Amino acid sequence: MPNTSKLAEGSLGIGESIVMGVAGAAPAFSLAAATATLVATVGVLTPASILYCGLIMFGITLAFIHLNKVTVNAGTSYAWVTQEFGKTWGFFAGWALLVAAAVFMVSGSIPAATATLLLIDPSLAANPPWVTFVAALWLSVISAIVLKGIKQASYTQVLLTGVEILILIAIIIGGFIQFAAQPAHAFSLSWFSLGEFTPESFATGALIAVFLYWGWDVTLNLNEETKDAVAVPGKGAFWSILIIILLFISFSISALLVLSDQEIQNSGTNILFAIADKIFPHPWSYLAILAVLLSTAGTLETTILQFTRTMFAKGRDRVLHPRYASLHKSWKTPWVATTFIWAFGIILLFLSSYFPNVNTILKDSVNAIGLQVAFYYSLTGLACAWYYRRMWKGIRELLTYIVWPILSALFLIFIALYSIPTFDYVTTAVGIGGLLIGIFPYWLNRGRKK
Predict the structure, then answer these.
(1) DSSP for 292-336?
(2) CATH dotted code for 14-445
(3) Residue pLDDT, tens place only, 242-254
(4) Three-class DSSP category at 116
(5) What per-residue confidence (pLDDT) applies to 1?
(6) Is the Cβ–Cβ distance between 116 and 138 less than 8 Å?
């Protein structure tokens, strides 16, 4: 029988919870991966797209916070949706997170490898075998840290995220100061105008913005390992999403001030370096590459944490094989689930080496992950509204427990359905096909009793 004792209770405090939430969204990596695509889609309305999607995301954050008060479970969306809408919807809510995390093993580790090689030997950064090898090393190191224990993972995360945020703030402020007088794009309040969007540009931009924000909910996946598991993970999520929104909006404004449209598109996933190169002298501009590297390593860690805690919860409930609920006797970590995602990530890395370039991988994965995240976030928002539908007292609770979460959920459903017809073959196969593959494990485990 697997060792299904409890995870390491009371290991994380409020500060570590906030850091985990910020790191989960990977500010530097997410901005590097998605900003150029977002600007190509909505232009100078990029800050508006980030702001309005941030408000939507805050409604989902409220849903996570309120549902955590009811049930503390490392499976979060899987457990809460199961509780409200039944086993099938709950299973696929959790499956969407597992698939998104698995896809990110490639779209996260390859940029980490590229950034590493740019710092060591730029000539190797375009060499697929070297990129794949270094990506596999990063994935192996991060998996080992996660396997070793949640405290070790949190110490690593505080260091990585602390340096990353300091560099990112320096780039943002530097852009404001040096290009306020002669900006590439003259600042205007119209950058935040909702009326300037077309329905298509708003929906497409919002799906990209969903990818930007994804990951803060790791604070709730770690609820069973956090002090005061009912209250502290919710506070961590609340403050982390506020910090993330401010960072993303500030950076998007700075990017528009510093770079022209053509420079933004030419920079691709190196937009942080492109900005830093215009405001800092060499070699200080290379701090931007370091920020992306640290951010990517940090979010690989939080993604593995989300994956393993969700798989642990599913194994514990026997909707997946109970082996995935096995915990290491000393480290109290789900070692089978961690080993699985490491091995699966290595396989995906090998397969990804057949893609023409990193930008193709990132473009396809951003939309595919955005679709999967929209799926399980929207189900969580609906579950919150459904649970509290008869329990609210006063206008404030009606707004924050029901109206805001359900409007956020409906919006995410809308942008997902609106964007699917615009996907190419690969994005459709990964985004929708990844969800449909869940039918097989669901069917295989449907008769297993707790």
Answers:
(1) HHHHHHHHHHHHHHHHHHHHHHHHHTTSS-GGGG---TTT-S-HH
(2) 1.20.1740.10
(3) 999 999 999 999 9
(4) helix
(5) 44
(6) yes
